[in-house]
Amino acid sequence: MDRRSSDFVDPEDLGSNPSAEMSMGDLIGRRLGRRAAVRSLVGIGAAAALARELLGGSALAQPAGPSSLTFAEVPHGLDKTHHVPQGYDAQVLIRWGDPVVAGAPGFDPANLTAAAQEKQFGYNCDFIGLHALPAGSTAGDRYLMVVNHEYTNTNLMFAGLGEGRASRTKASKQQAEVELAAHGGSVIEIARDGGSWKVVPDSKYARRITGTTPMDVSGPAAGHDKLKTSADPSGRKVSGMLNNCAGGETPWGTWLTAEENFNGYFGGDAGKLPDAKAYKRYGISKATWYAWAQHIDRFNVEKEPNEPNRFGWIVEIDPYDPSAAPIKRTALGRFKHEGCHHALTKDGRVVIYMGDDERFDYVYKFVTAKPWNRQDRAANRTLLDEGTLYVARFADDGKVEWLPLVHGQGPLTAENGFASQADILIYTRMAADLLKATPMDRPEDVEANPVNGRVYVLLTNNTRRTEQQVNRANPMARNAHGHVIEITPKDGDHASTEGAWSIFIVGGRPGIDPGARYHRATSENGWLSCADNCTFDSKGRIWIATDGAPTAAGIADGLYGADTAGYGRGLTRCFFQAPTGAEVCGPILPPDDSAVFLAIQHPAETAGSTFEKPSTRWPDFKDGMPPRPSVIVITKRGGGVIGS
Ligand code: FEO
Ligand code: CA
Ligand code: CA
After folding, report:
1. Is the CB–ligand 1 distance for residue 316 below 6 Å?
2. pLDDT band at residue 15, thresholds of 50, 70 and 90?
3. Residue nearest to atom 3 of ligand 1 (CA)
4. Going along 288-398, which residue ranges are E strands?
5. Ligand 1 centre from 475 Cα, in Å?
6. Ligand 1 site, residue 260, Cβ cutoff 6 A
7. How many Å apart are CA 459 and CA 457, to the nearest integer?
8. pLDDT recorded at residue 165
């Protein structure tokens, strides 16, 4: 979700963590002072060689240099359309309103209905996953593409609502129902056709999942009293998933999708309810972002106080079985989940890395109790229901410790309000507070590099961190441009509860923004701001998508590639520029690196933009046609590996 202009600042995203003031910044402030802390970053962990290459605050160097990525960089800029490097083509694969399931009507922006939207591609595409066809194969020319639909820009979907976030609360009941249908996710089948890709119409796998799709709840919190509502006295059947931002996949080929800012859909006065403290910690207040609570009782916490507890989970969906109910996996905790990428332990268990995207919130991982079964896919059906959830503490000495969120251990007891493991999972943030996890600068994607085994933590920004709250893992006060941390698990094992961390890059304009750090050969186009999602190509190079570029400086969000090893390590290069108002999400390459798929989310989400007069009509550029969030695919003209 974009937070670039003040109009779109998430009013609930001011940071609800009361322990932020107790952060290690107090310590570091005493021990080092901020400038010394920043200076010392380059000496942390395994980064000694990098230190010689890193540069903070001096002149920009020439492009290309030692990077293994040799594409011609896209010059920084900002306009109504997208840009790719010379010699590359971008193709729009599917847009908001395009048919997904058989029988879907054509897109009619003047007459949006929930019934049509439930069959069409949803709004604000985010995470993209690729699942090879036929099932069980690892690469090829056919995939099931799974896509999240995070949220809706009400005023760009419907006429007459005006501009800005406040306009969202003006939606009618019928419009709110369209919005619910535009949330969730899509499964589409795609195929390579010569040098391009196309959506396979009427695929038997095609599916829309929405804010009303029936879902099961599993794991330790299933059936808990706090999950029961008048519509579901069992606490095991939820209607829909909401604000699915990033995601991941399991080794057995299911889609994991992460419910993020679910709080914004709820209205009513949570402050007068018995669990007022918990609602506050999760950002649920009278300041609803949407009109849903006016029209649909379950979104009013005064009428249905437990409904918010049924959101904020990781949802597992089998893309190969359109009849299978999505399952909310409570063992992975409840917070504002950004993503959920997996790695394997040395003994074959599955680790899911996750970020809680709010200022001063935490980084988590979940480790399954049992290894995954390679021979019998069905045997993995309940694997994510049993395991250990950990939260990260980043120490100033360059070590990271993973603290178990287990009932009965340490302060996680009934005396402190946690009567069971289910309580810990429903109120994960509050349990993590007690463990004194490290409050971070908005953790977005947390993803293991399959080539070097290190884990990259994308911290998008946190302009509310004060000088006193600075620590070595969050080295910037008023961090406007974010940074990326690299974790090396102890013994190279993702099961380890210890590791070493170092800073990979610090965003911002070198020489202008304090602390900005990249490889010294980073060009004037290669620096970035607000890293959000990432992926890795088969060579282990990182591709970083941004959300929150400094548009006032005339710079759009984009996609940047960088080596993670060798002479070009940390040398980010600009590969893609988004149209105005859009963030770039969901980057993913197929195993042969022959394409990169991107979700272009909320085009035209700028101050003053309306349905009648959007700041861009990307990608159709036709009068009367609104801007349409879309998935695009970028290929090299004539074929070849992306980036080089
Ligand atoms: Fe939906 Fe954390 O971005
Ligand atoms: Ca974001
Ligand atoms: Ca995101």
Report:
1. no
2. low
3. 1
4. 314-317, 327-329, 341-344, 349-355, 359-361, 363-371, 387-394
5. 22
6. yes
7. 6
8. 85
